[in-house]
Amino acid sequence: MTPHERSLDLTGTATASARARETAAAFLAESVRRRGRPASPAASDAVLLVASELVTNAVRHAPGPCTLRLTAHEEAVVVEVTDTNPAPPEPRAPDITGRQGGWGWKLVTRLADDVRVLPGPDGGKTVSTRLPW
User: Fold this and answer.
1) What confidence score (pLDDT) does residue 107 get?
2) How far apart are CA 39 and CA 45, in angstroms?
3) How many CB atoms are closer than 10 A to CB 26?
4) What pLDDT, on the 0 to 100 scale, is given for residue 81?
5) What pLDDT, on the 0 to 100 scale, is given for residue 103?
6) Residue 121, exposed/middle/buried by CB under 10 A (0-12, 13-18, 19+)?
7) Which stretches in the chain have pLDDT values below 50?
8) Helical (H) or strand (E) element with 116
9) pLDDT at 49
10) Are strands 4-10 and 66-72 parallel, antiparallel or unpaired?
């Protein structure tokens, strides 16, 4: 299978995470059609969650726009988000009250087979994850 790709430029607003989930869902549906076999519900849910969490983190911790990139390969989906903050994500203690977050990065690193933080263009960074189908 030739890799299937999609990219979405997002503003740093509260609607960015919802747009990321919608784009990822449409991307997965198209990738399944191209692939000829369905992804497991757990794999699809993981891709949606990672895309949403990475965009949420970019909006919360980096000023300005971010870019979501999705690439489907035969056995994996790569989810990447580029933002304007050069600082790598830092794990923090989750807030069990739900007010302060702290769960997103833990979920991302738990769900993905591979997580990398790479220097991005213009001084920002790209967080790249690989999730199995």
Assistant:
1) 87
2) 10
3) 12
4) 96
5) 67
6) exposed
7) none
8) strand 114-119
9) 94
10) antiparallel
Output the pLDDT for position 13: 83
Measure the CA–CA gap between 87 and 39, rounded to whole angstroms.
Answer: 33
Say what the pTM is: 0.90
Burial of residue 107 (number of CB atoms within 10 Å: 0-12, 13-18, 19+) = middle
User: How many CB atoms are located within 10 Å of the residue 25 CB?
Assistant: 14
Residue 97 confidence (pLDDT) = 64
| pLDDT given for residue 100 in this prediction | 63
Percent helix, strand, coil in the chain, to 5, is: 40, 25, 35
Alpha-helical segments (H) within the chain: 16-35, 41-61, 104-111
Max CA separation in the chain (angstroms): 44
Give pLDDT, residue 92: 73
Length of the chain counted residue by residue: 133
Report how far residue 58's alpha carbon sits from residue 89's, in angstroms, rounded to the nearest whole number. 9
Distance, CA of 24 to CA of 104 (rounded, Å): 17
Task: Set out the domains of the chain in order of their start, with CATH numbers.
Answer: 4-132 (3.30.565.10)
